[in-house]
Structures are given as structure tokens and as C-alpha cells.
């Protein structure tokens, strides 16, 4: 699915996340190097991933030079320790000029800190699972899909449930909160780019971009 | 012997109650400073001895909640002395960025990492560099240099990058 051609991706940490990430990237045709400082883990992966494995501490400048960090398009740090992931990404970025750094964050509280410290992207499985749980228990038919600009803007999905008051209304007739942009209406697995005359039907999913603080008002519209 | 040349009393938070951390804690406490020390192992606090009456905080020094309990936001200085270079690097940046501590210092064993972060504006003390440099000068009968000479000195900068510089 890569549109910009193959990349050179350095993955640091050959635990389960690193291993599967490396396998996936290889299958997609990218050049991958998987760095691990535990010899036992390396040996266990030798047969499977031999040629892309490298032994060493991802925070050591000597190792970083040896594995060609300077020409990596992306560095992904997915060790089990947040402090290691931080230092790997910071060194990659600032000493080697790597354009894009992604850090796994084990403690979700560190996400914001890492961004403030120059890490391009963070991934917290704790946060993702928590968000999924939260969606389950939130009332209403509006599901957050993505947060942009540090959560200021959200992309949400709103479902037109049977009997919903919006069913049968045109997009232009909806009493939408300010700063709401309807991007798409999904009907029978087909995504349409709607206009103001598009009439909503039961079972539609409406994808909208919205200021985060307006989400509650949007929910009220679709209740 | 407590030093008497310091008049300004400060609030300092020390992360890591090992030999270095406990020594900083006890000497600064004797000098009259407001000292808080953090460690995740309660046994470590024994190094402080019976006379230390500063604050002991049990917890993980790269957890914001622990730093808040230690009132890092009120501190004038924060120093990280755990055995983990990266742990120290992360905690001082946390103290600086999240808690706006004006003075932060990290002890870093790896000379290259210490050098890299010093360049990025983090005050680092590389005990490896200082120890090795002092010992070399002692062996050679040289006069000791200034601390900065040892921190960024010729002895330990061994990467290709530095060689090319």
C-alpha cells in the first residue's frame, strides 16, 4: 500500500511488535533493518529474519552509524522501555537527521511529552485500547475515528439509526453545530461525496470533520 | 565538611539514591538546602544515613505522577543519577519541559550520548569522561584541567563523527 516507493525503515526492538512490524514491512517491499540488543532474542529470529537483523544498542552512536541511520527514511522505536524509545528517536532525528521518527509509548502519559520533545509520532496501545473501550460505553451514535491537530479537530462517524429524526432529511436541512464539515455518506458500503441535497437514509454512516468541543452537539443531532 | 560558600538555599530534587545521588542528597542537606530524593527501591534510602531529614519519595522517576509527588514543579534544580543513561535523559527533559525546572543535570555514563545531549542543551555530567580523564592525568603526573576539559575533552570522543569533525 506504499505510494511513495520503498523506504528504508529501521525498527529498534525485536519484541513481538518489532518482529511483526518488520515482517509486514518486508512483505510490502520495504528495506528493513531490525535492531536488537538481546542476543537470545536475535538468535531465536535468525532463521526467519536473518538478513535484516542487526545486533546492538539502538542508543549507541557507533551502532547507529554502522546500520546507516543517516539514510533511513523512518526510525521506529518499539522497545518495552519508554526512555529507550525516546532516546533512540531523539538521537535519530537530531544526530542523523532522520525525517520521521515513531516511538512506542508504554505509559500513555508520555505521549504528549514525546511530541513536545520532537518525536514525530507516538503509538500507545494502552491509549488505543482505552479509546476503544470508551467508545463502547459512550452513548449516542457518534464514533470518533481520528484526532487531528493534537485532538483539536476530530473525524467522526455518525450513524443514522432506524427511526432517527435525521432519516429522510437532506444534508442541507440538518441542524449541524458550527464548524462541522460532512465529508462522506456511506451507504451499502459505498462512500459518496454528498452535497446539500443528499438525503439521509436509515443505515447511513455520515463521516464528518468537527471541532472536538462540538462533538456532543453533533451527537444530539443524530440521537 | 559542609561548604560555606553557598548562601543561596534552593529546593533540589534528586532522582536515584545510589552512591552519587545519596552523596549529593546528604551534602546538600547539611548545607541547608531543601532536598527531596526519589528511588524505586526503599532499601536504597539506607545510604542516606540517620541524619538525613530531607524528603524521600518512593517511585519511578520517569513517571510524571512521581515527579509531581516530589514537587518537582517547585524545585529550583533537578538532578538525575540513576544507573540508566536514558532514564536520566528522559527524566531531566520531563523536569524541564513539563515542570519548568530552571536547572536540570543528568549523569550519563556513555560519553557519546553525554556529548550529544550536551549539544542539545541538556546539562550532562559524564562521570566516565571525568573519571578517566582525571586518572589519566594522575598516571601521567599532569596538572588537572577544568571540569569542562574532561567533559568534552580529547580522551573519550571516539565516534567516526567526532573523528571527522
Describe the structure.
The complex is a heterodimer of chains A (223) and B (165). Chain A is of the alpha/beta class and 223 residues long. Chain A has 2 domains: 8-128, Rossmann fold (3-Layer(aba) Sandwich), CATH 3.40.50; 138-222, Alpha-Beta Plaits (2-Layer Sandwich). In chain A, 32% of the residues lie in helices and 26% in strands. Chain A has 7 helices and 11 strands. Chain B is α/β, with parallel strands linked by helices. Chain B contains 7 helices and 6 strands. In chain B, helix 3 links the parallel strand 4 (77-80) and strand 5 (103-107). Chains A and B meet through helix 3, helix 4 and helix 5 of A and helix 3 and helix 4 of B.
Give a brief outline of the structure:
Chain A is α/β, with parallel strands linked by helices. Chain A is 32% helix and 26% strand.
Structural class of chain B: alpha/beta
Principal-axis shape of chain B equals: globular
Number of helices of chain A: 7
Q: Which spans of chain A have pLDDT < 50 for at least 5 consecutive residues?
A: none
Structural class of chain A: alpha/beta
3D shape of chain A = elongated
Output the CATH topology of the domain at 11-107 in chain B: Rossmann fold
Provide the CATH architecture of the domain at 11-107 in chain B: 3-Layer(aba) Sandwich
SSE succession of chain A: EHEHEHEHEHEHEEEEEH
Give the H and E element order of chain B: EHEEHEHEHEHHH
List the chains of the largest interface with their residue counts. A-B, 21 and 24 residues
Terminus-to-terminus distance of chain A: 37 Å
Low-pLDDT parts of chain B are 154-165
Number of continuous helical runs of chain B:
7
* Mean pLDDT, all residues of chain A: 88
Percentage of residues in DSSP E strands of chain B: 15-25%
Strand content range of chain A: 25-35%
Give the beta-strand count of chain A.
11
